[in-house]
Amino acid sequence: MRRRQLLRLAVATGGIAGLSACIGVYDEPIPAGGGPLPPGQHHWNDQLTTDAAGNHQLPRHHLLLYADLQVDPLGEPAVRDRLTAAFTALTAAYRWGPEGLLFTVGYSPAYFRRHYGRPPEGVDLPPPRRLSPFETPTFDQHDLLIHLASDRADAVTGAEAALRGQQATVNGREAPVAIDDLLGRIQRRTGFVGAGMPAERQSDLVGIPDDDPVPEAAPLFMGFMTGFRQNQATEAAVELTDGPFRGGTTLALANIRLSLDAWYTENSHAERVAKLFSPTHAAEGAVPGVGRALGDDNGVTPAIVDAIDADAGTVGVVGHAQKAARANRTAGGEPLTLRRHFESTDDGVASLHFPSYQREISRFEAVTEAMNGTDIAAAHPQVRQRVNNGILRYMFVRSRGNFLIPPRHQWALPTPTG
User: Is the pLDDT of residue 213 over 60?
Assistant: First the structure.
């Protein structure tokens, strides 16, 4: 337990204090990098471990750094060279993978608007907006977002400390990583994912019942696994296929507050299955436990999608995955978005960071509209806008942001033309 407490403290605190909390926790050094890297920043899958069914397992520790760039003029070659050197130094200091460090650098619509006066060419990247009539999010308008992820808390905290100029070395080596003088209005948000982690963090959290109901085997607070491989787009399927940012992708990132008292106290396991997956899943007992019996597919078939109106009219409930699938598949049934979500306990509140990668932000917005189920609520009185309508009753969007994740060769201060 002592080890787990130290790792929780490390990422939550950050900086030198967080890094110090990791001393003595790990027996092995963090492996260094320096090998060949994939061209896309979002290319993580080849490095991720998989479970017995082949589902990719995300790194356990995550840190999101939002920041503005306080540089004038922004396009000065020396500034771009410094950022390139910093990001390259991280890949040399840490092996590219969960045992070392994975990270992405993204740029918001506000970055292109503020510094260049126009959006990036060939990219569907609108400013973030409300995506439902019942949400009131704030909009993330920072210039850039750095997402750090690792199975090693000391890799995440060490990379952050180096980037923010709090230590001169990174993973034991001197490197030109510090960019703190280039950044302003920095906001940090932390996260985690993996079996056992939500259960060990659930006590005394706002949004979780007092009796600590999250199962030990669950990777997420809602008690079920997600990210089934057959229901995730491939990394190639979310890449831009033409234009100056070919090989990059877009990221829609929301932070969602969880309110799970009623989720656990008012619903049986079968009712939770019906609302998260579909009533058919519940009737057939397809999801015992946290869902590992499903293998690499969430089991939402075309027939289950077609049964939405029938389920709404007879059972009075429709499933979250059942609704979202209406807009998240090609005509041939291939998924269109790649989701890599993880949990958070920032500010003592249970919440979810929801990163979604896709070619166009409009695709994410279409999937969200399908998930909202407004059309279903309008046609069936038993299903209301938030009640019996998937899991909407238990989730409240706190913030939204949209970002371009350019290919690696453009990760330092891209212009609208690349």
Answer: yes
Beta bridge partners of 331: none
Domain boundaries, the chain: 1-237+247-418
Locate 173 and state its tokens.
Answer: 């080596």
pLDDT, tens only, 308-330:
999 999 999 999 999 999 999 99
Asked if 182 and 79 touch (Cβ cutoff 8 Å), the reply is yes
Distance CA 326, CA 367 (A): 8
Distances in whole angstroms, Cα of residue 367 to Cα of each of 267, 320, 323, 328, 363: 26, 11, 9, 6, 6
Distance CA 23, CA 15 (A): 13
CA dist 31 to 23, 34, 151, 170, 175, Å? 16, 10, 12, 12, 16
pLDDT at 60: 98
Q: Which residues contact 236 (CB under 8 A, 6 or more apart)?
A: none
SS (H, E, C) the chain: CHHHHHHHHHHHHCHHHHHHHCCCCCCCCCCCCCCCCCCCCCCCCCCCEECCCCCEECCCEEEEEEEEECCCCCCCHHHHHHHHHHHHHHHHHCCECCCCEEEEEEECHHHHHHHHCCCCCCCCCCCCCCCCCCCCCEECCCCEEEEEEECCHHHHHHHHHHHCCCCCEECCEECCCCCHHHEEEEEEEEEECCCCHHHHHCCCCECCCCCCCCCCCCCCCCCCCCCCHHHCCCCHHHCCCCCCCCCCEEEEEEEEEECCHHHHHCCCHHHHHHHHCCHHHHHHCCCCCCCHHHCCCCCCCHHHHHCHHHHHHHCCCECHHHHHCCCCECCCCCECCEECCEEECHHHECEEEEEEEECCHHHHHHHHHHHHCHHHHHHCCCCCCCCCECCHHHEEEEEEEEEEECCHHHCCCCCCCC
Tell me, what's the pLDDT at 76?
78
- pLDDT-based confidence at 112, cuts 50/70/90? very high
